[in-house]
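Task: sequence in, structure out. Protein: Acyl carrier protein.
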Amino acid sequence: MCQPLANCLISIHLQLKLVIMQLAKVLKESFNVNESDFTDETLLMDFGEWDSLSHMFFITKLEEAYGIEVTGDEIASMQKIADIKKVITSKGKEL
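Result:
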């Protein structure tokens, strides 16, 4: 357990920032977008470089980055950035 509480909060904040930066990196590699180009409500298909092939490249990079396996149903559910975060957290990974 963290002591004092302030140290725990700083640690959690830094972990959160690293995980979000990791997602932003995967999105940049896959769709050539910057973190400032999207929000949780952004649709993947709105990225100019999005197509089915780049989507599968993204899924592969996402699985590698987070050490997870994504099912076909989960892939189909990933329409928005928020959907991606939901899948990652459902695998026990923290955002």
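The chain has one domain: 5-90.
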